[in-house]
């Protein structure tokens, strides 16, 4: 007489279901991956066509850019990609040709700072250099920023606010706002201009650690990886920014 072990049979049953589920999940993952890959390829094709039409003057809208509204342009580059100096130089040549006058270059680890001499040699002599973060150039003014910049100034500003409002026990203890920090930074002489437009080159859609207190009213545009940069899309981003009405609030 053959006896059946209900526990063993149930284990076999659930094992078969588990194997089937794993196969279905595996197939589903590949289908989703295929769909996303196709969508990415289609998007890149459209971007390439759009870039070709803009750079060759077929789209007249982007021919004359109103750079008066882009007084200070910020460029954020992923530190790994910033090590490709030739790509960065090519990007700067495009911006110089477009007529950009003031430029803030940022990467998290300070790679661009280490390549400062290369940019100086490429874009003019340093005879007119001035002290401070802004280095005067013949064609563009550069500021080099990394994630460590400004932290000391913010710490000093916080210490100043503490001494002003908390050392004296009788003084009123306010709720600190952005205005308090800005005033403290101005007192210390540590206020740098906020970029009007921030173009971000990197694998993720974020500002990659750019000092948050300097992008309060900054328009940010993710441009994709630096190796896939396109002049036409830079022109499009600048044009869109110049046409947007900004409400800064109170």
UniProtKB/TrEMBL annotation:
Signal peptide: none annotated. Belongs to the UPP synthase family. It catalyses: n isopentenyl diphosphate + (2E,6E)-farnesyl diphosphate = a di-trans,poly-cis-polyprenyl diphosphate + n diphosphate. SUPFAM superfamilies: Undecaprenyl diphosphate synthase. This is ditrans,polycis-polyprenyl diphosphate synthase [(2E,6E)-farnesyldiphosphate specific]. Its main location: endoplasmic reticulum. Its EC number is 2.5.1.87. It is found in: Endoplasmic reticulum membrane. Its cofactor is Mg(2+). It comes from Helianthus annuus. PANTHER family: DEHYDRODOLICHYL DIPHOSPHATE SYNTHASE COMPLEX SUBUNIT NUS1. Gene3D superfamilies: Decaprenyl diphosphate synthase-like. It comes from the Eukaryota. One of its GO terms (cellular component) is endoplasmic reticulum membrane. The chain crosses the membrane at residues 21-42.
């Amino acid at each position: 007489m053959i006896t059946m072990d209900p526990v063993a049979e149930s284990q076999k049953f659930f094992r078969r279901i588990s194997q089937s589920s794993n196969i279905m999940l595996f197939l589903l993952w590949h289908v989703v991956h295929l769909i996303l890959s196709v969508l990415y390829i289609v998007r890149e094709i459209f971007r390439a066509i759009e870039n070709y039409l803009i750079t060759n003057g077929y789209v007249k809208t982007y021919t004359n850019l109103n750079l008066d509204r882009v007084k200070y342009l910020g460029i954020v580059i992923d530190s790994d990609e910033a090590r490709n100096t030739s790509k960065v130089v090519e990007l700067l040549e495009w911006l110089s040709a477009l007529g950009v006058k003031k430029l803030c270059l940022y990467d998290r680890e300070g790679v661009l700072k280490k390549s400062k001499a290369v940019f100086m040699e490429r874009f003019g002599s340093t005879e007119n250099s001035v002290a401070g973060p802004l280095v005067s150039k013949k064609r563009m003014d550069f500021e080099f920023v990394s994630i460590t910049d400004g932290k000391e100034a913010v710490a000093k500003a916080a210490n100043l606010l503490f001494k002003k409002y908390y050392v004296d026990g009788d003084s009123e203890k306010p709720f600190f706002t952005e205005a308090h920090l800005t005033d403290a930074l101005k007192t210390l002489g540590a206020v740098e201009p906020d970029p009007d437009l921030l173009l971000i080159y990197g694998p993720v859609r974020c500002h990659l650690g750019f000092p948050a207190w300097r992008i309060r009213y900054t328009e940010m545009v993710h441009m994709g990886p630096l190796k896939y940069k396109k002049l036409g899309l830079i022109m499009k981003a600048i044009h869109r920014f110049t046409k947007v009405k900004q409400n800064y609030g109170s």
